[in-house]
Design brief:
5 helices; single chain
Amino acid sequence: AWSPNTLIDLVGNNPALHQRLLEKFLVNATGQAAKITAAAAASDTTTLTGIAHTLKSAARSVGALALGELCQNLELLATLHMRQSAAHWLQGWMQSWKPPASQFEAI
């Protein structure tokens, strides 16, 4: 789920600022998505944990709540070194990544 009110609550009703923040989030999140995929492929749970944590916070800050929850689960699984479960969550990650971007573009 995505909450369009998150940015309003955080920085006020300023559509231009919201657009800039969302654009910056999408650029950064796209890079982080690639790093998550690479870390998972390499079974690098330390890197995976760190990136998932960072993206979790950023996603929640802009209202991408489902993505934030997915990152939280991925972070926990990576912390516990549950590679097989993390791989399962990574599949969910790949399916969930596109919707927030398309929703943000509508703003």
